[in-house]
Design a protein that fits this description.
This protein is an alpha+beta fold. It contains twelve helices and 15 strands. It folds into four domains: about 130 residues, no CATH class; about 100 residues, Beta-Lactamase (2-Layer Sandwich), CATH 3.30.450; about 120 residues, Helix Hairpins; about 150 residues, Heat Shock Protein 90. A five-stranded mixed sheet has the order 10-12-13-15-14. A four-stranded antiparallel sheet has the order 1-4-3-2. A hairpin with a 6-residue loop joins strand 3 and strand 4. Helix 1 packs across helix 4 and helix 8 runs antiparallel to helix 9.
């Protein structure tokens, strides 16, 4: 049962990228929001503890100065003044955490907020009593408590001699997270009403209303008994939460900006990919001249460049394949026809000598077919252009001498000489260079009158080798066409002319595989044709598998 392919719905690249971006931004926004709430909660807790630490240090010190019935009476008066109940509790029953115990030990207050009941439990350690803590439960902060703070401070300063008040104030300052000082009444800028209240020994609250919570504050002024000085506490600033409204507006603007930027960035990319897709569809439909437009060197531009190279390679392979099919069919037809003719002659031959002659002719035609098939397979393998070279270092002079010996063993009617200045070590795939020289020498043998010269050498950048002969040479107009498959300078395709038109094509493919160039000219020494291969001395050694390293013959 054949499978039915279902076309998937197209998903816009912009929607995919922006959708992913939007998800990421949403996650970041949620994490930021939760982090903001956590930070604000921590800041609020620290603010409450800072505001309470100074006052409750004064209350703890005052509680420590009273004992027995005096303490109970003092706590009752404190409760009335602070509008909240105060008592002394044992620490082991409160189950303080490690952080709370640390803060209590150094004299700071601990605030336990109960948001559901809109109230807070506040604790402070009583100096000199290891497990005794002053405790209250407050549900609001009032003006009366601010005045009580000034009264508690003055009461604490009066507990020491007048001369030691300044020194004692310095001891108390570390427990307050706002300014605490004693100044002359004349140094404070007060209006007449405020000065009158100071003269009547009243506590004065000065509210400064600003445009933002950061600029709004409260100062507490209290006259010191038996002195021209006043106690100044503050300014005390209100707690400022991070501006959530501004954050929301900024987030909306950021999302809009990111949306616009993402669209402007992705839209051209999507358009270019769609154009590349259209070119691919044209190529799939058989339009092998279709090419993508390379506008830039980014990823899409590189993709278009690689695609164009692939399209050109495919077009070249298809054209080469068509030409090869036509040429192979023509090349195979001649030996097959001769074999058929030989079989018919063999059937009609009566004498043993005639039959033997026909068998030899048929065998020669079969050998010609084998050689032709080998040439075709070699050319097809090189035409793939995707295998790696198995590079080795070998001596070029030895290779040229070996080709000369192999050619002379065939008893060719020409003289072959090797001219090379030194024992030249070159890097290449030896079996391919050997095949290249063999093909060039075989081509020269067919046209040379009597001499062939093999030479080679190196310069600073390149290796080179040359095959020259004293034949008629190659017309300049034909020097590029001879490297085309099945192209020959004559139209004869009989066995007497030799060759199949693939030898020089194989030579050109081997040269291309070594990043080299083949040039054809006139031999200055012999006057005939001159074939010169030039390839770089520096080639990257690439390992190949055993399957890739198949022999050519």
């Amino acid at each position: 049962m054949s499978k039915v392919s279902v076309r998937r719905p197209r998903v816009s690249l912009f929607l995919k990228l922006y959708g992913s971006l939007l998800v990421c931004i949403t996650v970041v926004a949620l994490v930021t929001w939760w982090s903001l709430q956590g930070i604000n909660g921590w800041r609020a807790a620290r603010y409450r503890e800072h505001m309470a630490s100074g006052m409750f240090r004064l209350i703890a010190l005052g509680t420590a100065r009273h004992a027995g019935h005096e303490r109970a009476s003092w706590l009752q008066g404190l409760s009335q003044m602070m509008e909240a109940p105060f008592d002394v509790v044992q620490g082991r029953r409160q189950h303080f955490t490690w952080i709370e115990s640390r803060d209590l030990k150094v004299g700071r207050a601990v605030v336990r907020l109960d948001p559901s009941a809109s109230q807070a439990d506040i604790f402070a350690r009583i100096p000199g009593e290891p497990d005794a803590y002053i405790h209250t439960r407050m549900s609001k902060v009032s003006e009366q408590q601010a005045k009580a703070l000034a009264a508690l401070f003055i009461d604490e300063l009066q507990s020491v001699p007048l001369a030691q008040r300044s020194q004692h104030l310095q001891v108390l300052k570390p427990y307050f997270y706002y300014q605490v000082r004693m100044v002359d009444v004349d140094a404070v800028h007060l209006d007449a009403e405020q000065m009158a209240r100071i003269a009547h020994k009243e506590v004065v609250l000065i509210l400064k209303q600003g445009n933002s919570p950061n600029s709004s504050s409260v100062r507490i002024l209290a006259p010191l008994p038996q002195s021209r000085q006043i106690l100044e506490l503050g300014p005390l600033y209100l707690f400022t939460w991070m501006p959530v409204r501004l954050m929301v507006i900024s987030a909306i603007l950021a999302l809009a900006t990111i949306t616009l930027c993402a669209y402007l960035l992705v839209r051209p990319l999507e358009r270019r990919i769609k154009q590349l897709e259209l070119v691919v569809r044209r190529l799939r439909a058989g339009d092998f001249d279709a090419r993508a437009e390379v506008r830039s060197s980014d990823e899409v531009g590189q993709l278009a460049f690689v695609f164009n190279g692939m399209a050109e390679h495919i077009q070249r392979l298809i054209v080469s394949q068509k030409e090869m099919v036509r040429a192979v069919s023509h090349e195979l037809r001649t030996p097959v026809a001769r074999i058929r003719f030989g079989v018919e002659m063999l059937a009609e031959a009566d004498a043993a000598e005639d039959r033997q002659h026909q068998l030899q002719e048929i065998d020669a035609d079969i050998e010609e077919l084998n050689q032709l098939i080998d040439e075709i397979l070699t050319y097809a393998r090189l035409e793939e252009g995707q295998r790696h070279l198995q590079l080795t270092t070998f001596n070029l002079a030895d290779l040229l001498q070996r080709v000369r010996s192999e050619t002379e063993a065939l008893r060719v009617p020409v003289k072959i000489e090797v001219v090379i200045s030194a024992m030249t070590e070159v890097v290449a795939e030896e079996r391919y260079i050997h095949r290249l020289v063999q093909n060039l020498v075989g081509n020269a043998v067919r046209y040379a009158r009597g001499r062939i010269r093999l030479s080679g050498g190196q310069d600073a950048m390149n290796n080179w080798l040359a095959v020259e002969d004293d034949g008629p040479g190659i017309p300049e107009a034909e020097r590029q066409r001879i490297f085309e498959p099945f192209a020959r300078l004559d139209d004869s395709r009989t066995r007497a002319s030799g060759g199949y038109g693939l030898g020089l094509s194989i030579v050109e493919k081997i040269a291309h595989g070594h990043a080299g160039q083949m040039s054809v000219g006139v031999s200055a020494a012999l006057g005939g044709a001159s074939f010169i291969l030039l390839w770089p001395r520096q080639l990257s050694t690439l390992e190949v598998t055993q399957e890739e390293a198949k022999p050519l013959t």
